């Protein structure tokens, strides 16, 4: 059943390069097994980039993805495609003074010192090389975002694609994966377990197909790229009680698979109470208004017409605060200048085209159109 989808062609067997650098699979008795891929990647979001990099290094790779609509239904495809890179060549071209150390300082300040400093340093050091790899090797048309900074960034360091939407990133990476001779894409197939030998070494990835049948793919390594647990209500209630009642705007396959499978293998966990919220989802449209509206000068009010905090602290912080307001709903108030400044975001254009944007000539008209108290 391996290779049931690969560039529209007939089924193919998995690749393994016997002389390659990848880890070998072993059976229950510790004997080396050949015939499987060097690496199985679970999740066709960020996992696509991982698969391309592994194949670039000479590994044979199989990517397994649970749903056929992954190009529109995972968190990467639903994102604004922002890739931070501290010290990138695009920053240098714009005379932006940045470094991994400055990025770490921003992270620690934004998280009030609670982030894992060692992990932050590690990620910050590879952030610019990663962005440049995405452009040079993966072929993404990236540029530095200079018209605004997301909360917490002291300098422009986010890079994005035209349209600033993750769907174009996924489309591009999926095409590269399908074209690569060293990668097979298996869709739909869900990773449900990782089988190990007596010494704990990975020997196979266990996948399940929609009809309920299961298959073991011999491999020596598995990359868990299945995102978080936002779509699992029980896990959200257990780990994120402050946001449990909020609208979930994310991929339907974010079910905690990596947490369950990794935990079962003895992997350590941490920061399970951390999340990225979003306080600017358009009610009735299901689109992101986008926090750029606030960064450019918009304000948020609750159903009583009152501001309830400093919006510049961040959209994730504001998600919990909005969820705690009556009705868990508010309004972003902006002007036509801000509307024009946000046209670079596909999400915002989709929001405008959905018809949910209410226009008014003055405060009285706005109150009448929105139902907000005119004297607020």
From TrEMBL:
The FAD-dependent oxidoreductase 2 FAD-binding domain sits at 38-322
List the SUPFAM superfamilies hit by this protein, alphabetically: FAD/NAD(P)-binding domain
Listed GO molecular functions?
Answer: steroid dehydrogenase activity, acting on the CH-CH group of donors
InterPro entries linked to this entry: FAD-dep_OxRdtase_2_FAD-bd, FAD-oxidoreductase_2, FAD/NAD-bd_sf, Succ_DH/fumarate_Rdtase_cat_sf
Q: Which domain of life is it from?
A: Bacteria
What Pfam family is a match, any one?
Answer: FAD_binding_2
Ordered alphabetically, the record's keywords are: FAD, Flavoprotein, Oxidoreductase
Residue ranges of the region described as Disordered: 1-38
What cofactor does this chain's UniProt record say it requires? FAD
- Give the PANTHER family listed for this entry: FAD-DEPENDENT OXIDOREDUCTASE 2 FAD BINDING DOMAIN-CONTAINING PROTEIN, FUMARATE REDUCTASE
* Protein name (Swiss-Prot/TrEMBL): FAD-binding protein
Provenance organism: Actinomadura bangladeshensis
